[in-house]
Amino acid sequence: xxALDDTNVAILLAPAGTEExxxxxxxxxxxxxxxxxxxxxxxxxxxxxxxxxxxxxGTYEVEKAVSDVSADDYDALLVPGxxxxxxxxxxxxxxxxxxxxxxxxxxxxxxxxxxxxVLVEADVVEGRTLTSxxxxxxxxxxxxxxxxxxxxxxxxxxxTSRKPDDLDAYCExxxxxxxxxx
Length: 182
Known about the structure:
Blueprint: E1 8-12, E2 16-19, H1 20-32, E3 36-41, E4 45-51, E5 55-62, E6 64-65, E7 76-79, H2 83-90, H3 93-104, E8 109-112, H4 116-121, E9 129-130, H5 137-142, E10 146-147, E11 152-155, E12 158-161, H6 167-179
Helix pairs in contact: 1-6
């Protein structure tokens, strides 16, 4: 594994509806590689995650509100999915602006499942090849991206994946890309 010592990573967490394993497993993977990780969301406080979009899972702390941080505070960004969670994130202009900053700064970003909805809203998928949960493919194409049905896709410093079944490959690729020097 690539060491991520002294790497600061933000992971988005919606107030409710983020898919738990898409939050916990990537977070653990980058922490295990040495990164410092902050859960960032539209507002600080508790957030309720879900399992399979429908069942309540764990409660986690959103440590920092997007209004209190910027991409300058971090080296990389993780965007988990969950249909409801991703929809809440893409509906929050502060979160969308925060995501856009990572692309403008050419910092690495990982997004899984419904997470790319936030990238579509941030207007950063044009000309990129990515994957997501299959129901997002039209949104991605309409935003100028090329959607492919693959376990994990890396386009420059963007890593995307389709679903929880792909987490092992996604987490491995995220750690590798986040660890590459600029």
